[in-house]
User: Which sequence fits this backbone?
């Protein structure tokens, strides 16, 4: 499979990566090479094989749904590019 | 007298106990070494003041009889571990200036054991790479040079290249690393040191910047197996803050280093004899087999039939998980922000400017593989083949106790080589990725030099949770090979 510029631009948009036409033309062949490389998986017979999501043979733990920690507003905001009165600030979303 | 920077961790602990030197003296000698080897670019952030303050505290603890297991030992911390109050970048522009407000579990455990942090070691951006040439903060140089007079600058391997270079160059006595597809084992081999990635779930991932969460696993570098065992001991153990941390007992790794491998069954997987494998790699492997035979182990031929599919599986699963994990870098809560006309454009501008090419490539591959219409063909298919790869190992372990293979298909290459084609770069990890996909413990130990004077490493892969046997075999190879070579950077300085 070969990824054309349009597909590359679409994928970049889905991933929220701004790319120029020039970038798309550069990434296209590289991404196509990788996709072609991974497509050899099609030749493996995986009938009746369950997908493996986790290698650890443990069940995820459950705990009581209760507050165990918190009160870190200052720490959570400490690395924000912009804050105001205890909130993160983003560009205007609703006109 | 031996230079303090040439001591192993075990020797240094002994010297500290005997009051031959103080933690401050030991730390200062490593800070001096760090300053003298700045050209290696092994660190993104150096923390000499913090290190000396920690060393003073360490000396106080020792004087009052409260020393921890690794008290006073100066180490390097891969800049993927969040360290409270110390910049943590993952070698990415997008996290430049990020100051964590909390400490990762592994770095906390090492601190609790008394280690001294010299600085945050350089790496490939978000741990994505096999040569440490994708860091926003510049390439790391391998302290080793070819002996052919070419003076070519060689890569230290990756992604934990700064950690491996620092330990090899005698800047740090040990270092942390993380391994997703070989990021501890391959740089250990390229830099002529020992490195272990434990079983997935052995060391907590809490506070480690995520790349591919079903594969990422912290581990340790040191100049020998004994020191690796000491570091891994301090780093391991259950952590309720990591949902895939294993709640099982951690054995005494040092006690496992008995030197006795009589009757142990060493599996040699025939599929690792890949086409075009250099003769020097083949020879090193055969030498390793002979060393194990001489030590009384039994060599068993085994087959891991799906080996050739490990890299394609990895290059679906790792990018898929990375595209999901790295969605958090949006310029809102932390890290870089590049304003746009609206929120969406701010996201896209921020990520375009903040991520390097390799990271963008992997995010796009992952996004493509997870996108509607392709999910089953790529992601689910890769997860199914991942199971077959894992089952291959379990079948092999019915016949043997550990597997032994080369760590990498070549010695360290020059900066710029393998850069033109991403797939060529990915092939570096052909021997390390399968064990990562199966979550198995793996270690690389240096066993010899090639004809250009560069170190080569052998990989030992163990059963789940059996790091102890991996370490025992590693130490046997280390002793049998007598590997005790130093990188050229040091011998030059001594001359």
Assistant:
């Amino acid at each position: 499979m070969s990824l054309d510029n349009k597909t590359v631009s679409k994928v970049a948009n889905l991933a929220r990566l701004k790319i120029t036409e020039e970038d798309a033309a550069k990434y296209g062949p590289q991404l196509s090479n990788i996709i072609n490389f991974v497509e050899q998986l099609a030749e493996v017979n995986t009938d009746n094989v369950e997908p493996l999501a986790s290698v650890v043979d443990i069940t995820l733990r459950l705990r009581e749904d209760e507050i165990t920690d918190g009160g870190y507003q200052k720490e959570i905001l400490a690395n924000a590019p912009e804050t105001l009165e205890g909130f993160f600030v983003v560009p205007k979303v609703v006109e | 007298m031996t230079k303090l920077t040439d001591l192993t961790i075990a020797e240094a602990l002994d010297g500290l106990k005997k009051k031959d030197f103080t933690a401050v003296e030991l730390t200062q000698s490593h800070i001096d070494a760090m300053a003298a080897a700045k050209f290696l670019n092994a660190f993104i952030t150096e923390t000499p003041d913090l290190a000396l303050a920690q060393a003073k505290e360490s000396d106080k603890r020792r004087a009052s009889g409260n020393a921890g297991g690794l008290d006073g030992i100066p180490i390097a911390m891969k800049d993927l571990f969040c360290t409270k109050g110390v910049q943590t970048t993952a070698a990415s522009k997008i996290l430049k200036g990020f100051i964590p407000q909390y400490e990762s579990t592994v770095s906390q455990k090492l601190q609790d054991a008394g280690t001294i942090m010299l600085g945050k070691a350089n790496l490939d951006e978000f741990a994505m790479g096999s040569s440490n040439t994708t860091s926003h903060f510049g390439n790391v140089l391998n302290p080793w040079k070819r002996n052919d007079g070419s003076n070519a600058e060689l890569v230290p391997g990756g992604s934990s290249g700064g950690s491996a270079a620092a330990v090899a160059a005698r800047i740090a006595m040990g270092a942390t690393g993380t391994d997703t597809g070989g990021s501890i084992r391959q740089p250990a081999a390229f830099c002529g040191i020992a490195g272990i990635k434990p079983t997935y779930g052995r060391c907590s991932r809490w506070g480690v910047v995520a790349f591919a969460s079903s594969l990422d696993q912290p581990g340790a570098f040191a100049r020998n197996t004994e020191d690796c065992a000491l570091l891994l001991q301090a780093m391991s153990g259950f952590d309720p803050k990591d949902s895939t941390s294993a709640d099982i007992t951690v054995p005494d790794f040092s006690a496992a280093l008995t030197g006795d491998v009589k009757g142990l069954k060493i599996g040699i997987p025939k599929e690792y004899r890949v086409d075009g494998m250099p003769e020097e790699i083949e020879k090193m492997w055969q030498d390793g087999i002979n060393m194990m035979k001489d030590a009384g182990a039994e060599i068993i031929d085994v087959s891991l039939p799906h080996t050739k599919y490990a890299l394609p599986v990895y290059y679906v699963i790792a990018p898929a998980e990375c595209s999901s994990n790295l969605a958090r870098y949006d310029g809102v809560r932390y890290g870089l922000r590049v304003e746009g006309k609206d929120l969406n454009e701010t996201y896209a501008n921020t990520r375009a400017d903040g991520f390097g090419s390799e990271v963008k490539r992997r995010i796009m591959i992952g996004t493509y593989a997870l996108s509607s219409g392709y999910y089953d063909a790529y992601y689910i298919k890769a997860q199914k083949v991942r199971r077959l790869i894992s089952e291959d190992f379990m079948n092999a372990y019915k016949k043997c106790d550990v597997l032994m293979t080369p760590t990498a298909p070549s010695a360290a290459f020059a900066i710029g080589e393998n850069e033109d084609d991403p797939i060529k770069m990915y092939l570096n990890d052909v021997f390390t990725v399968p064990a990562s996909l199966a979550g198995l413990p793996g270690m690389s130990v240096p066993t010899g030099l090639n004809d250009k004077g560069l170190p080569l490493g052998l990989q030992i892969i163990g059963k789940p949770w059996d790091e102890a046997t991996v370490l025992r075999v590693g130490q046997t190879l280390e002793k049998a090979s007598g590997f005790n070579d130093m990188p050229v950077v040091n011998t030059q300085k001594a001359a």
Observations:
- The radius of gyration of chain A is 23 Å.
- Chain A touches chain B through 51 residues (CB under 8 Å).
- The longest helix of chain A spans residues 21-38.
